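Entry 14. Ran structure prediction on the chain below.
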Amino acid sequence: MTVGDWLTSRLALAPPVLAEQVRAALEENMHRDADAIPQLCITRGESLLRDLLQRNPNSRERAGELLLVDALVTYAFEAAIENAQALDDRARDAITRLSALAERVPG
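Output, structure tokens:
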């Protein structure tokens, strides 16, 4: 199964705009093996969150971007559950990476 196949099976119930944003965020990786989804989603979510935090993160206009980050992290963990043995390490890595971004936010 590829990343694209896996996402197609999950995005059917997502709001169309969010589904399209998720596909766009991962489009260059759609052909990769689905085992890569947890790392791909966390990496892309981290990148988007970093960009969001560098701008005005409290602006209402940023809500859609924050929802995309949330969706990517959610899909990362949904895919990670399929390999329960690696789940603890993946969760620890994601928490470390994402929380490090918050430490850089002024105020």
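The chain has one domain: 3-103. Will compare against last week's run tomorrow.
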